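Retro notes - structure team

What went well: the batch runner handled both jobs without manual restarts.
What didn't: labels got mixed up in the shared folder, which is why I'm recording both outputs here explicitly, each with its sequence directly above its tokens.

Job 1
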Amino acid sequence: MALNNQNDSVSYDLSYLTELSGGDSSFIQTIIIQFIAEAPTVIHTIAVASSEQNWDELAYQIHKFAPNLAFLGISDIKEEVNKLESFSKLHTDLEAIPQLVDILEQTL
């Protein structure tokens, strides 16, 4: 079940979450509500870590956040999230990180 939100800015697919929950709509709703509530704070923390060049914190936050995107089938920014985690973890291509964080912020 691939769906687009009203603004067509983020595609999501709840198939995995539906399968994981055994079709439990209450569980699915809880996960979605939790994501909506927590994502802005996590994204802000990621942006701060990037601006402070705290690569280890950035890698940690992205690593924690990525499974939430997978659960909700948000794959539009999968490549960017993978790069963010890799670059910050390995301390490579650091000049690309601010733009990747911007993409994450604007997409979500």
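Job 2
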Amino acid sequence: MSLSIAALVLFAALLHASWNALLKGGGDGFWAMTVMGIATSFACAVLVPFLPMPARSSWPYIAASALLHVGYNAFLVRAYRGGDFGSAYPIARGSSPLLVTLGAALIVGEWPMLLGIVGIILVSSGIISLAFRERRLPEAGIFYALGTGLFIAAYSVTDGIGGRQSGNAVAYTVWMCLAWGASALPIYLARRPGVAIWRGSRKTGLAALGGVISLAAYGIIIFAMTRAPMGSVSALRETSVLFAVFLARIFFGETLTARRILSALVIAAGALCLE
């Protein structure tokens, strides 16, 4: 992975942790995710006329990824409801790089080099260790956090393949996010009939901002997966937990312990192996 691609992925990691913190801090995760989806679809609709159409072979991947993102959002919201941000986020993100690497190897024959495997294992191990509480994982939200990790792996491999076949990673991202975002409002209305979406300019605006940030972050990742191995990009992206740990400390008052700092150093070592 080149230094420029690594820097882009790390920037995307910061963006990703930021919108997850906005989601956690919003209180009503399902509502916040809905507003994010609506904002994402509007942003994509504005961009569509200025981009080429993705290649025909990539459209099944666009449809599959949009559906997988719906499942991912549902599990993510439930994971945050059952556990704190500093635990649910590392479990969800830490379980995905190994799964992405395995999926990329089995489906497209993309086997990482030895140093890459070491880096992926270090990143995943360091991330998951951040979720421990006194030598055990918190019970609340584990199932949904792990389920979130499975969805992350599934849509990452799907988008890695689809983005490569599309001929234009940006166009692929925009159409995929448009398809996913368009489903947000109908799902909300079906589950909460009569409950208003608008909750004031500040609260609604923050949730919408999270949607735009998430679009930018994932667009960078899809582009990176067209230029570098999927497993390595996925693992480096998950260094977002380092940013999440500090955001959890600053905004939610969650404890930053010596063990968490050690885990962060392990993740950093893995990231260096990947680069």
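One thing worth noting from job 2: The chain has a mean pLDDT of 83.
We'll revisit the folder naming next retro.
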